[in-house]
DNA sequence: GATTTTACGTA
DNA sequence: CGTACGTAAAATCT
């Protein structure tokens, strides 16, 4: 049936959906189905009711199978069939007769019909003018049906509706009243810099070209409504023939950035470039909108564009990056200022100030480690590469001879052909996210190891070894900087890169989450090394060395996640063990059976701790590890190399002996059900927006231990950097460990260890109980050959 | 040529 | 049905 437009005559907000669904079709009223119910909730969050709005759809009749594609001539859904064109004309008439002030376009089809724009993801959140009925405002947002599949988009949709409500009271189209100056003369820019020096706050943004991260454009905003950007390099050519002119400007810029409190968006990048290329330390850089967003809304995207769309009311500008780069840059600076003002209120209102300040305190250390880099011993590197080449050749030749032809072991296709056709082995399947998904064949390491166990073909193990050697090459065969160093970008707010893009994205990532740990990625300023320094295999670590005349001192939190878990689940036996072993040497712990895995095994098998055999200990270790994060019997079976049935028995034995973990998992599920928010032991909150189910639960189980340990280390590191970095400088961060450099004599090593220990002993309180996580030390001349040492030895 | 999938290294 | 992270190469799409 034809579903008509409904709503009161006086309404000034019109909501346009895509097409009627089953319920709408049956009742003849728009938005009465499932997505209508969600719409009610969303509108409620913006103090709006459906009954105050004009409701309609682009297509007035339900398409077969709810497929909107039915109404289009082409796959891209840009050429409507005559019937849809008629419906759109009806929509136009409705707009003319109801005269809404603003139209909320729900989803791609509504956006397209009202404005001709094809992409909802870029248009979302920015008010534009309708092309269907010129003069009418359109605010595009996601369709509720899309939100039900992508819950992380609920937040922006609510913000969009609020923006629509706020704008529905304004008579005109949004006029852009900002003053964005993009082509000043040198004199005008110098005047502006003098003006900026008198401001209480400014926002700054730079545009750079790679390689070299040269600054093309620098923009400064003195308020959300006033910004000026200056172009230094255009089309790779400097603007001034006399370098003197540029020097003057940089001197003035340096004065401003070192004295005026500065806001940036992902300023770790900007300030690193300014420091490295122009010697400007940006001492005024105190606030960052990306860090602020990470603290307030860790689960949402934090590109400046996204944040602007939810925080402020400006026209979309990201598409002007190439055509009007200076204007774009001025917009960035002004909008950074605007976003800051909104998020700052949220920081205060939401009680996020301490966490925000702690995040900002990490910026300096992260930048220091980024720019300093780590030295690589070229001789060791050459030796390791040579060894790797000969080993790879040897295993490769053996395999090629055995199979009668060359095989690309990196190719899943060729591997599948080899394993499941040529060798006729039983296909192995990947684990699925849910049972409903189709099974997919895999040829990964685990699969090959499983096959090796069944078939006794020694070539399978050789394949695994060969693949490892191929992989190792990528860690060894790396480019070093002219001074023989590698650099990594430490990201305090988690990931900074969109998945597998050609160009590394600096402040524009849409796919962002973070569990409070640092991540490490390729530096675009100093692109030397393998990029990520947190996943270097042990073998390759040999070539990483401290600066001349020093050794590495490694300090890592001992079994940190296990300690945290023991306290949260209230496992008294384990807590007792951790207390007894605190500060004790490895030998003492071994002699006195102070060993988590032995204790686990003893509990499982119901025997005294000193009777646990090495095999039983291995079972205990695997089971504890597996159960902590809710792994299943298949993983345990693979790890231990035992049949599934035995693995299940082991798991049941453990769960029977130690029920606390399951009780805790239940508790986590209840917390997720009531608020979807979990808080780590330092008060950092994370909202879990993924689809309800086991995958969500497991992610949640790992959150508290993982993020608590990450934050523990980062707190220690900030304190250490402030107090001791000049004496024993920091070199590396590895989630639960940090590395510093010290002269290798006993006195210095001991002092370095004590400095680390002092900063790392941070008491953690949980349920009125306070504890510390113990620290282990290792020292050595390179990153691989480290030997254990006690605090005082 | 761009995007998605597969695999794999660390904590 | 461990999770978190980043990178490389192959496979697939357009």
Give a verbal description of the structure.
The chain is α+β, with helices and mostly antiparallel strands. It has a 6-stranded mixed β-sheet with strand order 6-9-8-7-12-13, sandwiched between helices. It has a 5-stranded mixed β-sheet with strand order 2-1-3-5-4, sandwiched between helices. The longest helix is centred in the last third of the chain and has 31 residues, at 694-724. The protein is globular. The structure holds a DNA duplex (11 and 14 nucleotides).
What are the defining features of this structure?
793 residues, alpha+beta, five-stranded mixed sheet, DNA-binding
Structural class: alpha+beta
Unreliable stretches (pLDDT < 50, length at least 5) are 496-512
The general outline is globular
Distance between the termini: 85 Å
Q: Profile the largest sheet.
A: 6 strands, mixed
- Relative helix content: 40-55%
Q: Strands of the biggest beta sheet: in what spatial order? A: 6-9-8-7-12-13
Mean pLDDT, all residues: 91
% residues in beta strands: 5-15%
Strands, total number = 27
């Amino acid at each position: 049936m034809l579903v008509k437009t409904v709503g009161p005559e006086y309404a000034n907000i019109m909501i346009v959906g895509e097409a009627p669904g089953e319920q709408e079709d049956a009742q003849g009223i728009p938005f009465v189905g499932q997505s209508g119910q969600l719409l009610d909730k969303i509108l409620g969050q913006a103090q709006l009711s459906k009954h105050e709005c004009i409701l309609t759809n682009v297509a007035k009749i339900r398409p077969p199978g709810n497929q909107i594609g039915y109404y289009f001539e082409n796959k891209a859904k840009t050429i409507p069939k005559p019937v849809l064109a008629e419906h759109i004309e009806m929509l136009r008439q409705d707009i003319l007769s109801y005269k809404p002030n603003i139209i909320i376009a729900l989803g791609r089809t509504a956006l397209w019909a009202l404005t001709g724009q094809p992409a909802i993801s870029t248009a979302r959140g920015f008010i534009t003018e309708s092309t269907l009925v010129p003069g009418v405002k359109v605010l595009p947002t996601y369709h509720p049906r899309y939100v039900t599949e992508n819950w992380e988009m609920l937040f922006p949709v609510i913000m969009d509706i609020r923006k629509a409500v706020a704008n529905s009271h304004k008579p005109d189209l949004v006029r852009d009243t900002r003053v964005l100056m993009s082509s000043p003369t040198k004199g005008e820019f110098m005047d502006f810099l003098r003006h900026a020096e008198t401001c209480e706050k400014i926002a700054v943004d730079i545009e750079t070209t790679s390689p070299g991260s040269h600054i093309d454009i620098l923009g400064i905003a003195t308020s959300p409504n006033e910004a000026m950007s200056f172009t230094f390099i255009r089309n790779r050519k400097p603007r001034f023939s006399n370098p003197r002119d540029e020097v003057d400007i940089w001197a003035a810029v340096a004065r401003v950035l070192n004295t005026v409190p500065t806001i940036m968006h992902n300023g770790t990048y900007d300030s690193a470039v300014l420091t490295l290329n122009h010697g400007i330390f940006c001492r005024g850089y105190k606030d960052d909108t990306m860090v602020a967003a990470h603290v307030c809304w860790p689960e949402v995207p934090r590109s400046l564009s996204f944040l602007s769309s939810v925080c402020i009311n400006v026209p979309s500008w990201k598409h002007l990056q190439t055509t009007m780069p200076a204007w774009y840059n001025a917009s960035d600076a002004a909008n950074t200022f605007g976003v800051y003002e909104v998020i700052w209120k949220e920081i205060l209102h939401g009680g996020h100030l301490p966490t925000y300040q702690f995040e900002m305190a990490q910026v300096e250390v992260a930048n220091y480690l980024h720019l300093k880099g780590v030295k690589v011993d070229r001789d060791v590197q050459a030796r390791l590469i040579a060894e790797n080449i000969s080993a790879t050749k040897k295993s490769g030749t053996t395999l090629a001879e055995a199979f009668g032809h060359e095989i690309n072991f990196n190719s899943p296709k060729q591997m599948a052909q080899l394993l499941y056709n040529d060798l006729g082995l039983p296909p192995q399947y990947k684990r699925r996210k849910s049972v409903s998904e189709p099974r997919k064949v895999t040829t990964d390491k685990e699969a090959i190891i499983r096959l090796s166990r069944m078939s006794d073909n020694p070539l399978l193990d050789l394949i695994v070894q060969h693949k490892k050697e191929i992989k190792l090459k990528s860690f060894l065969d790396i480019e070093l900087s002219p001074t023989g160093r590698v650099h990594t970008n430490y990201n305090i707010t988690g990931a900074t890169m969109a998945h597998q893009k050609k160009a590394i994205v600096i402040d524009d990532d849409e796919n962002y989450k973070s569990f409070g740990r640092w991540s490490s990625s390729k530096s675009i300023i100093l692109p030397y090394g393998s990029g990520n320094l947190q996943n270097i295999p042990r073998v390759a670590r040999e070539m990483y060395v401290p600066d001349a005349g020093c050794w590495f001192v490694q300090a890592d939190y001992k079994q940190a996640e296990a300690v945290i878990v023991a306290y949260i689940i209230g496992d008294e036996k384990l807590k007792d063990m951790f207390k007894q072993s605190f500060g004790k040497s490895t030998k003492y712990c071994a002699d006195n059976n102070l060993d988590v895995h032995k204790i686990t095994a003893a509990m499982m098998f119901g025997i005294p701790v000193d009777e646990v055999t090495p095999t039983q200990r291995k079972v205990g270790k695997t089971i504890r590890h597996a159960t902590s994060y809710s792994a299943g019997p298949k993983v345990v079976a693979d790890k231990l190399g035992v049949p599934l049935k035995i693995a299940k028995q082991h798991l049941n034995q453990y769960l029977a002996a130690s029920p606390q973990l399951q009780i805790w998992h239940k508790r986590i599920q209840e917390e997720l059900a009531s608020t979807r928010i979990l808080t780590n032991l330092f008060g950092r909150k994370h909202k879990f927006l993924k689809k309800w189910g086991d995958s969500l639960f497991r992610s949640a189980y790992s959150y508290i231990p993982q993020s608590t340990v990450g934050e523990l280390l980062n707190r220690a590191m900030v304190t250490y950097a402030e107090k001791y970095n000049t004496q024993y400088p920091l070199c590396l961060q590895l989630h639960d460990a940090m590395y510093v450099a010290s002269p290798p004599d006993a006195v210095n090593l001991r002092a370095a260890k004590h400095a680390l220990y002092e900063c790392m002993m941070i008491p953690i309180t949980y349920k009125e109980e306070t504890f510390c996580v113990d620290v282990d030390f290792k020292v050595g001349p390179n990153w691989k050959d480290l030997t254990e040492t006690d605090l005082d030895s």
